[in-house]
Amino acid sequence: MSTGWSWYIIVIAAINIAGYTWLLWWTAKRRPGDPKPEDTSHVWDGDITEYNKPLPKWWINLFYITIVFALGYLTWYGGWGNYDGTSKWSSKQEHAQDKAREDAKLEKTFAPYQGQSIDVLAKDPKAVALGRSIFGNTCSTCHGAAATGAIGYPNLTDKIWHWGGAPEQVLETVLNGREGVMPEWGKVLTGMGGDNAVDYVIAYVRTLSGQGSLQNDFMAARGKTLYDGVCVACHGVDGKGNQAMGAPDLTDDYWLYGDSKESLRQTISTGRHGIMPAHRELLGETRSRLVAAYVWSLSNTASGSANPQSGQQAQ
After folding, report:
1. Is 99 among the domain residues?
2. What is the structure's pLDDT at 233?
3. Hey, is 245 helix, strand or coil?
4. Is 234 marked within a binding site?
5. Do residues 185 and 269 both lie within one domain?
6. What is the pLDDT of residue 156?
7. Residues 15 and 50 both lie in one domain
8. Do the annotations mark residue 143 as ligand-binding?
9. What is the pLDDT of residue 68?
10. What is the model's pLDDT at position 301?
11. Mean pLDDT by 10 residues, the chain (315 residues)
12. Are both 74 and 62 inside the same structural domain?
């Protein structure tokens, strides 16, 4: 808070307290010429009379005590602008102390799982339960309560991993995050193949996942030529993608942003930019391991017998 705002608060608070005190003093006094308590001339229904009796002394004195208490409270707890208060108490300091106590409790809870591999943790029901709780508080906003994802947010329950599904790869994703970039290729493709170039590439990409055939398909054939000139660098000659770059496999039936022509046209023409935030600072090492173990367990058996790298192209 700036010095100017600090003084503004101090002055406003002081004026209000002084105003309450003056008003209480002024209204508590009887002055010459005031009507008698029973003589206000305010009468209703013949016998209902308004009196003008002053407040009892005990009530007035109690009000004065509350004013003194307010002054002491503001001075003790630092209610005068930037003044820290004689007690040096602050809500920030109390929050930090409470957080430290709760963090110590959490560390005690998480200590048994420190440094363990996520495939080992996935075999422990208690560890998985803790990971599920962390997921619900942290990850479900994007990936959903059931971890099935949404448009632009990966489904974590299948066998498809854009950045690799091995335990250490999943942990790396949670700890340090990922940034997937599909460049904008619309202008480049149009310059190479004309106004319909993007549609040609869409037609060919669809054949990679069994949604069409190159035979007798002029658009797909033209699209393959364009694909080989531009897209092959990331997605490979066979369209299997590249986990090291986060480039998805185009031969499966999973489409992160949807498989409609409109969605594919937007992906190719204007690109996509997906970010998985790093959670190392937010969750810490052990909690990241627990949530990674939970995520890994969703698509692997409890015994860890499933091969996380077999036929998997990224979450």
Report:
1. no
2. 95
3. coil
4. yes
5. yes
6. 96
7. yes
8. yes
9. 96
10. 67
11. 91 95 87 73 78 82 96 93 90 93 91 95 96 96 96 95 96 97 96 95 94 85 96 96 95 93 96 96 95 96 43 40
12. yes
Sign of the torsion formed by the C-alpha atoms of 280, 286, 290 and 293: positive
Which pair of structure tokens corresponds to residue 55?
């407040």
| Residue 219 assigned as binding residue | no
1 is known to lie in a ligand binding site = no
User: Which pLDDT score is estimated for 34?
Assistant: 74
Of the candidates 60, 72, 75, 76, which has an alpha carbon nearest to the alpha carbon of residue 21?
A: 60
Q: Domain total for the chain?
A: 3
Task: Confirm if 129 and 135 have CB atoms less than 8 A apart.
Answer: no
Q: What is the pLDDT of residue 216?
A: 78
CB atoms within 10 A of CB 202: 22
Nearest to 128 by CA among 280, 253, 300: 300
Say how far apart CA 178 and CA 312 lie, in whole Å.
17
Question: Token pair of 153, please?
Answer: 């947010």
- 189 in Cβ contact with 226 (< 8 Å): yes
95 is in an annotated binding site: no
User: What's the CA gap between 215 and 38, in Å, rounded?
Assistant: 108
48 and 27, same structural domain?
A: yes
List phi, psi (to 5°) of 211: -95, 10
**Domain of residue 195, residue span:** 181-275
The pTM is what? 0.69
Between the CA atoms of 226, 227, 230 and 233, what dihedral angle is there, to the nearest 10 degrees?
A: -160
Size (the chain), residues: 315
Residue carrying the six token digits 């008003």: 23
